[in-house]
Design a protein that fits this description.
heterodimer; A: mainly alpha; MetI-like fold; two-stranded antiparallel sheet; 4 strands; 71% helix; 3% strand; globular; B: alpha+beta; Rossmann fold; OB fold (Dihydrolipoamide Acetyltransferase, E2P); 2 domains; 6-stranded mixed sheet; 5-stranded antiparallel sheet; 8 helices; 20 strands
Chain lengths: 296, 362
């Protein structure tokens, strides 16, 4: 027991950073969401629930008492959730075979493949996103090649569509799915796969009954790592989606910028936090719940 | 005639390519009879596990054919062979209950639910694990996991059960228990067992027949008594049981036996392996098991020896002796009440059992 008394001090630098960079700002955002907007941005220290009200409803410009659902906000919420779910699904479908391939290489070559997977992290996100723009814009690489080949007459509109946002997000977040999946597969006992085959299971049955239950923790970790940053993505939808496929991150940024409605922005940010945490709890209950209960 | 369960002909297996290629199995010809308890015995790296994995279908042979119950299964996957494996590490599915583990093979075969339930219950009873059907593999002991692995492999009623060193992870007492359990299961089910082990004692006590393997070859194939009493070469003699190797001079050859000159001047008859006719005066290697000689009074018996050490083993004592020409000899003497172990440096005579001495091909 001796010496344990001061060991917690080792965490203090990290605790201070967390306090200053996460909990503090979060508290400020929570407070701002209950204040009134200033005319030139910022907040006026006057309690108001208008910020939260405006998240869901809109007032008629001429008759402030005329209230209707704010369909645009709800649409952005829904689009963010839906695009993030699709991104997670695409990353899972693409990431599984990739992780499987790496995990089944001889140990020394695995390092090389893992290194290749992480290379995109070394390049600035903006540069990578502009590179995607270059590929998919109307007079970009793909359209030029297809038109030169005579396969299409006019360019396919890919920029500023949900497809572009999905492509960009799947590309950016794919490594975050591959790495935890790989970690789960690397720990997997491959003799279980042999045992499955030995007991008359087809390839598909081995995948479903033996491999997937084994790598489930990797799937859970990967989908959390992809879904959470995806729902708040800012750069990718901004550059590839434009104004028509705005996502939550852009909507929030808008309120702090041109919108000059900081309390609304703060309320949106808090709501996003609630949605993400709620989704996380629900997800872990549904997917991971059985195991936890049994293990306990 | 006994029907043949497994027929292996001209089987070769090499791993890797070109200069780095490693030949794990060389020209294996083997037939295993239906209902036999057959053991592949050899040191690690001898190819026994590779052979088992080829029978299971996890590996494909580089050349040769494999028939199971008369059907050529070369090239078929493990899920298309009437063969199940008990893995060394058990490889139980950690996310399934014991009952689901045992029922997995039947479920994959598409058997109806009621039949699966009945068979699982029967198997749990067979391995005496009825009370634990709903537990997870991580919640039971190694010995219990072993039983479940057996039940899981037996449940689909395979024609052949392959066992890859299944007892090596168990402690001695549990291992002995599982040995008799395995024998019981085999006689109750009538399934052909192919058992891989590096433990010669396990092989001797359990098998109907043993194939002793080394460096990808089958060196000797036969019943345990045959392998123990008449090993074909030095490797088999050394690997199975303890053996005294003596360099002795040939005094005369009489048919299939040689008269050898023993240290100290006496002679003894030793059987010759088939086809070997040594020249008189040549040095040959003769073998005798430690329990096939008896201590006698100094001066009596065939050989004279000095005791170096005596090691107590419970049922018997191993006496490490030096013969009069400095060759060493181990004598295994059964312990009896009131019989003290001889003191080091004491002298004694050795009487060899008639017919116990055999000349080996080198």
């Amino acid at each position: 027991m001796r010496g344990h008394g001061w060991k917690w001090l080792l965490c203090t630098p990290a605790l201070i950073v967390l306090l200053l960079a996460a909990s503090g700002p979060l508290l400020i955002v929570a407070i701002y969401s209950f204040l009134s907007p200033g005319n030139m941005g910022g907040v006026v220290w006057e309690f108001s629930t208008e910020g939260w009200f405006r998240v869901f409803f809109r007032r008629d410009i001429f008759e402030p008492d005329l209230v209707e659902w704010n369909a645009a906000h709800l649409q952005v919420f829904w689009r963010s959730i839906w695009l993030s779910l699709q991104t997670t699904f695409i990353c899972a479908v693409l990431g599984f075979p990739t992780a499987w391939f790496i995990a089944t290489r001889p140990p020394h070559t695995r390092t090389i493949w893992l290194f290749l997977i992480t290379i995109p992290f070394w390049t600035n996100l903006l540069i990578r996103t502009f590179a995607i723009q270059e590929m998919i814009r109307n007079n970009g690489t793909i359209n030029t090649v297809l038109m030169q080949l005579g396969l299409i007459d006019s360019p396919i509109q890919m920029m500023f569509t949900e497809f572009a946002v999905l492509l960009g997000m799947a590309y950016v977040f794919l490594p975050l799915m591959v790495l935890p999946l790989y970690a789960a597969m690397e720990k997997m006992d491959f003799r279980l796969v042999e045992a499955g085959y030995d007991l008359y299971a087809s390839r598909l049955n081995v995948l479903w009954h033996v491999i997937l239950p084994q790598v489930k923790p990797g799937f859970i970790a990967g989908s959390i790592l992809v879904f959470i940053p995806a729902i708040g993505a800012y750069v990718t939808p901004r550059l590839l989606g434009g104004g028509r496929t705005m996502m939550l991150g852009n909507l929030i940024a808008l309120q702090f910028g041109q919108g000059r409605n900081w309390p609304l922005g703060a309320a949106l940010a808090m709501l996003m936090l609630v949605v993400v945490v709620g989704a996380l709890i629900l997800y872990l209950r549904v997917v991971g719940g059985n195991d936890e209960a049994r293990r306990g | 005639m006994v029907s043949q369960e497994i027929e292996i002909a001209g089987l070769n297996k090499s791993f890797g390519q070109g200069a780095a290629a490693f030949q794990a199995l060389r020209d294996i010809d083997l037939t295993i009879a239906s209902g036999e308890f057959f053991t592949l015995l050899g040191p690690s790296g001898c190819g026994k596990t590779t052979l088992l994995r080829i029978i299971a279908g996890f590996e494909q042979p580089s050349a040769g054919t494999l028939r199971i119950n008369g059907r050529d299964v070369t090239g078929l996957g493990p899920n298309k062979r009437p063969v199940n494996t008990v893995f060394q590490s058990y490889a139980l599915f950690p996310h399934m209950s014991l009952a689901d583990n045992i029922g997995f093979g039947l479920k994959m075969q598409g058997k109806p639910r009621s039949e699966i339930r009945a068979t699982v219950a029967e198997m749990l009873q067979l391995v005496r694990m009825e009370a634990m059907a709903d537990r997870r593999p991580s919640e039971i002991s190694g010995g219990q996991q072993q039983r479940v692995a057996l039940a899981r492999a037996l449940a689909p009623r395979p024609r052949v059960l392959l066992l890859d060193e299944p007892l090596s992870a168990l402690d001695l007492k549990l291992r002995k228990e599982m040995q008799s359990e395995l024998k019981r299961l085999q006689s109750e089910t009538g399934i052909t067992f192919v058992f891989v082990t590096h433990d010669q004692e396990e092989a001797l006590t359990m098998s109907d027949r043993i194939a002793v393997m080394s460096a990808g070859h089958i060196l000797q194939l036969g019943a345990p008594q045959e392998i123990y009493n008449t090993p074909v070469n030095r490797f088999v003699a050394d690997f199975i049981g303890d053996t005294n190797f003596l360099k002795l001079r040939v005094k005369a050859v009489e048919g299939s036996a040689a008269v050898l000159e023993l240290p100290g001047g006496k002679t003894a008859q030793a059987s010759l392996p088939e086809g070997m006719v040594p020249t008189t005066g040549a040095l040959v290697t003769a073998v005798i098991r430690p329990e096939q000689a008896e201590a006698a009074a100094p001066g009596a018996g065939d050989l004279q020896a000095t005791v170096e050490t005596a090691t107590f083993f419970g049922t018997d004592t191993h006496l490490h002796l030096t013969l009069s020409d400095a060759q060493s000899f181990v004598l295994r003497r059964q312990n009896r009440p009131g019989q003290p172990a001889p003191a080091p440096q004491s002298r004694l005579g050795l009487a060899l059992a008639p017919g116990a001495l055999r000349v080996l091909k080198d």
